[in-house]
Write a sequence for this structure.
């Protein structure tokens, strides 16, 4: 019998329950009165506070203050519960993407194709990925192909071609690879095919971790074995929970003794699952007014995602990479090693994750990882992914970093 000391004997009793589709629909209908009776007064209060108080920092504008306040209240009562599992058919379709950073002319340059990604090969589900009732399954992946890239959609890798493997955010409980246009802009900027895995959301015992890890691994195996991309040709990139999953995947590749991707780009990574919403400290407290993330929702997502794992495992480097101990990043290679993984970590200097993202950077530097830091000055969480000006600067920085030796 395989030993699984990382697992609880049963899912955590603190696991929040996923809401039924009917109840979630009812809660969503309450969004409009919520915005009217809670949101509008809240926006009025924020306006008065902005006009009557000194600016907390020079770049803080009224439009930003109202945007952050609106983001906090826009989902109404449904913000405080877990959504139901998405319908299977929706996971395989292209959604109504929110286009903020890519123009319609740019969008016309991108072909989108959905493909089926097979489960990981037998024997690759081991260690942290072993959990009764959670298996690797067929999953959808989405190709974004710029009109000038070397290869098209699911063709075999061309000689010298590079590719992007993208993992989206959403707190492990919501989201879709194409729900925002950040991956479209990355594909165009790098002029590379971009493949985004629609990993399972942690809303049930069978789709909680290790399910997202197995799906991300399936995408990596698909690129390296089915399409024959060399690992060093892959840029693994994610935002928020997707960046967290990128770190988990890279650590698990090391456990499997598989080659690492050549580049790792982490946008506002969620990096500490031990945050306690009842005792907020550091940037969770000091930047609460300048970021739209809700600590209670984050904690709910973390508990749902890690329901099968012991508290010690959740506190460890896999789920809380900000708490990684000395030596736990050495698998990414020494900065003097020609075969090292180059890392770019991006965060806003007014986002609640700033402390934990700085801790990840410090841990990597301590372990001699080749890590570059891109700071979005006064930016909130993942601002570079969706705000046009910040996104344009980030894409230019990404291109310059990717082009460097």
């Amino acid at each position: 019998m395989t030993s699984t000391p990382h697992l609880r004997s049963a899912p955590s009793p603190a696991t929040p329950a996923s809401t039924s589709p009917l109840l979630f629909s009812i809660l969503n209908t309450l969004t409009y009165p919520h915005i009217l009776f809670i949101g509008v007064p809240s926006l009025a209060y924020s306006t008065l506070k902005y006009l009557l108080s000194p600016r907390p920092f020079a770049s803080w504008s009224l439009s930003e203050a109202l945007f952050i306040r609106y983001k906090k209240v826009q989902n109404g009562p449904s913000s405080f519960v877990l959504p139901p599992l998405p319908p299977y058919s929706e996971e395989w379709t292209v959604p109504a993407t929110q286009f903020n950073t890519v123009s319609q002319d740019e969008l016309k340059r991108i072909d989108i194709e959905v493909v089926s990604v097979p489960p990981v090969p037998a024997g690759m589900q081991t260690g942290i990925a072993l959990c009764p009732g959670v298996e690797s399954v067929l999953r959808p992946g989405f190709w974004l192909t710029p009109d000038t890239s070397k290869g098209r959609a699911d063709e075999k890798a061309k000689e010298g071609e590079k590719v992007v493997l993208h993992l989206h955010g959403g707190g492990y409980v919501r989201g879709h690879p194409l729900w925002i246009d950040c991956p479209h802009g990355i594909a165009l900027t790098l002029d590379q095919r971009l493949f985004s895995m629609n990993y399972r959301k942690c809303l049930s015992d069978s789709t909680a971790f290790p399910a997202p890890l197995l799906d991300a691994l399936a995408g990596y195996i698909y690129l390296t074995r089915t399409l024959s991309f060399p690992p060093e040709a892959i840029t693994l990139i994610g935002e928020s929970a997707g960046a967290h999953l990128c770190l988990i995947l890279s650590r698990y590749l090391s456990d499997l003794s598989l080659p690492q991707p050549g580049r790792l780009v982490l946008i506002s990574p969620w990096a500490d699952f031990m945050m306690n919403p009842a005792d907020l400290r550091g940037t969770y407290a000091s930047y609460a007014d300048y970021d739209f993330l809700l600590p209670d929702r984050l904690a709910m997502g973390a508990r749902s995602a890690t329901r099968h794992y012991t508290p010690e495992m959740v506190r460890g480097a896999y789920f809380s990479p900000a708490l990684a101990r000395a030596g736990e990043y050495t698998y990414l290679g020494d900065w003097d090693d020609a075969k090292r993984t180059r890392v770019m970590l991006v965060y806003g200097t007014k986002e609640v994750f700033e402390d934990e993202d700085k801790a990840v950077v410090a841990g990597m530097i301590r372990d001699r990882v080749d890590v570059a830091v891109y700071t979005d000055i006064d930016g909130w969480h993942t601002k570079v992914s969706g705000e046009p000006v910040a996104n344009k600067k980030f894409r230019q920085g990404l291109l310059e970093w990717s082009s460097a030796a």
Notes: The CA atoms of residues 134 and 206 lie 5 Å apart. Residues 87-403 form a domain with the Rossmann fold fold (CATH 3.40.50.1820). DSSP finds 14 helices and eight strands in the chain.
